[in-house]
Amino acid sequence: MKKILFFAGSNSSKSINHKLVSFAASQIAGHTVEVIKLTDYQLPMYGEDIEKEKSYSVDLRMLNNKIKEADALVISVNEHNGMVSAYFKNTIDWLSRLDRNFLEGKKVLLMSTSNGKRGAASALEYTKSVLPRFGATIVESFSFPSYSENFSEETNSISNEVLLMGFTDVIQNFVHQLEQ
């Protein structure tokens, strides 16, 4: 049994990426899953002066420990103007300053969603290219387009059958990779 940590890269209180990652967690059986919100870990905007003056916060160390304790991660990234949010980048900046290889040995499923037809694909591609620098192994990825049209919050499920099949396939492949 593997321990899988789930979170979204968004700081929105109504984050659709958090809803997607929570749905993904509900689809995993036979493993320990934990869904967290990055907003529970207060991190100031990264700057060398802050790092030198205040060092690394307790919240940063707690988040880093959560990641260290997990065997794998499922992360859903949001997109602002074709890029990852400054909030998520700031979190990565702090984690990588504390420990350059903070994702060493972690298998990662990356997801993204938006209400647009591309499903935050630009942010997803950027994140796929960046996380391996910190030790991550990206084993699967999934871009979920037009969230409001394809996800039912009433039933907490994917309403588009084709997307549901693709999503299920990605989850099953990810779990299979963890079990090898």
Taken from the alpha-carbon principal axes, the silhouette is globular
Global mean pLDDT: 97
Total number of domains: 1
CATH topology: Rossmann fold
What structural category do the secondary elements indicate?
Answer: alpha/beta
The Rg value, from CA coordinates, equals: 16 Å
Number of strands: 9
Spell the H/E element sequence.
EHEHHEEEHEHEHEEH
Question: What is the name of the CATH architecture?
Answer: 3-Layer(aba) Sandwich
Strand numbers in spatial order across the main sheet: 2-1-3-6-7
Number of helices: 7
- Portion of residues in beta strands equals 15-25%
Low-confidence stretches: none
Q: State the name of the first-level CATH class.
A: Alpha Beta
Largest sheet: 5 strands, parallel
Q: What is the name of the CATH superfamily? A: Flavodoxin domain
What proportion of the residues is helical, as a percent range? 40-55%
InterPro entries: Flavoprotein-like_sf (IPR029039), FMN_Rdtase-like_dom (IPR005025), NAD(P)H-dep_reductase (IPR050712)
GO molecular function, one term: oxidoreductase activity
Organism: Aequorivita lipolytica
Protein name: NAD(P)H-dependent oxidoreductase
